[in-house]
Amino acid sequence: MQDLIQENEQLKIINYELNLFLEQFKELSYSSETDLNGFITDISQSFCDLIGYKKEELIGKKHSILKHPLEQESKYKELWENITNNKLWIGELRCLDKNKNDIWYKTTIFIKRDIKGNILGYAAKRQDITDKKKLENLSITDTLTNLYNRRFFDEIVRKEINRARRMNKNFVLMMIDIDNFKKYNDTFGHLYGDNILKKVAIVLKRFTKRANDFAFRLGGDEFSIISMDFDKDKILIYSNKIKEEITKLKFKNNICITISIGVYILEQNEKTSLKEIFKFSDEALYRAKNLGKNQVVVY
């Protein structure tokens, strides 16, 4: 009997130490837990330190408080479908810390259950991959304008076409040229030309804030935007707004610039090839130039 009592006491100590270790591990890991409605019930101190919040600022709040505004909705849809069908979800997500800086992490999300198997909520474990993502971003970014570069354009355009088809949305390719750029470059010098490119890029970035929008500098004075979910009327309004904002830019020597835009819309279920999409958008741009420049032409 005495041996049994001692064994029980030892088991209690082991159980206590194990729970203590698990609690310490949880605090050191980038973890969080939510109830079935997505309200945060627990969050580790290390994760709070990473994103700059205090625990009390997050406990009881919707987990969507950490959602990045540019993260694709399709990713969250896939995540939710997985966990509501009793599956793990493993993938890369990003959030904004309290100072609005991007934080990237590889995350695993799984269901929490009680002893009887009833679902209590959801838990997430994360690995900080922000530095890795910054390095990746350098390789796909144009150093002068901070837009995406040609390499990333070639990589992403086919993926976005396929994604638009899966989502039954229109895919849009815009080709953009600065009118008379060579003349400005030759007359006022390369630094002047670089300043034009940078200011145009700032405008394009301002118009590509949605998760499905991408702006690129393809080389020289050639830019591109890819997007989805526009019809002809909407893309004309959107493109003309960009064109109008460019004309408002001011440069030394009282120079104002214009752009020409060629657009091709790949409509839902349309079978046009990638080669044809490029060809048609280039033809639309060429037509915009021939119409006197400072024009938008939709193929």
TrEMBL record:
Gene Ontology molecular-function annotations: catalytic activity
GGDEF domain boundaries: 169-299
Native species: Aliarcobacter vitoriensis
CDD domains: GGDEF, PAS
Record InterPro entries: DGC-Regulatory_Protein, GGDEF_dom, Nucleotide_cyclase, PAS, PAS-like_dom_sf, Rev_trsase/Diguanyl_cyclase
Pfam families: GGDEF, PAS_9
Classification lineage: Bacteria, Pseudomonadati, Campylobacterota, Epsilonproteobacteria, Campylobacterales
Domain PAS: 35-86
Annotated PANTHER family: DIGUANYLATE CYCLASE DGCT-RELATED, GGDEF DOMAIN-CONTAINING PROTEIN
SMART domains in UniProt: GGDEF
Gene3D superfamilies hit by this protein: 3.30.70.270, PAS domain
PROSITE patterns, A to Z: GGDEF (PS50887), PAS (PS50112)
Protein name: Diguanylate cyclase
